[in-house]
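Team,

Forwarding the record for the chain on the shared tracking sheet. I've put the sequence and predicted structure together so nobody has to dig through attachments.
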Amino acid sequence: MISLPESLPKADKLKRLENIIDLLQLGKCKNTVIGGIFLKGLSGGEKKRASIAKTLLTDPNILLLDEPTSGLDSSMALQMVRQLKTLASEYNKTIIVTIHQPSSQVYHMFDSLLLLSQGKVVYNGSAHREPLTFLERSGYKCDPLYNPADFMIDVLSSDGSEIDKLVKTRELVEKEVVNRNSTNSIHEDGLSTISTTMRYSSSSMVSITTHDSDFSVSEKEKWPTGFAMQFRMLTWRSFKQSRGTLLHVYSLTDFLLLGVLVGLLMLDNSEMFRDIRGVAFYMVVVSTISVA
């Protein structure tokens, strides 16, 4: 209700929501609470998919995900990446993911790869055979039965001098690409498979095609919904999320004990409070700390 424009009918919002739930396979848990300290709700994988679903509501062209597979087992991580792959291919989305130590199955689902080490770009290009060819040219050969992602992580964990060598090799390959393009000649050497897929920011531009969407907000509008809608929905959401904690027996006991303690403090020391505002402020502070 907050992410989508107020001008959009509620029925269309719910339809959009159901489509995303089906896409990310969240149907079996769509009526399950997120969960908290005292209430078990969604699992780790379901929480990650719910977070992605929230982002997809506005139909973005580019999706940035920071380690979406962290904390998941290999099966759940593979399922997550498969869903992202379907989203990218069928709905023409650009999905950029940071990921650590993916399985070989997960790795082979990626189209493009950017390898970073110590803040330096080691490789940027196709994610298929080319990275291994590039590393092999630099003296690092991967065993055919070894996970390419684990092999690359091991290489990128080298000391600074080795990383500098890889960076220089990448720069050399990029220069050869520029020279090859400028002379319009094709050399059938060991770098041909690498150079055709290496990306370099100095002479390439990324073109992103946008499209009009019913879920987008015009440039003149700062927020898709007004203050009244935001206040009403955020208040209702806050109540739904916190009622399980506030009304829990532990919280009620905590409030009761704090109330008794405050009463005892004021029993013979009412002079310490200048007026009723001091008492109200003290009670608000105590309630806030106890909830946190």
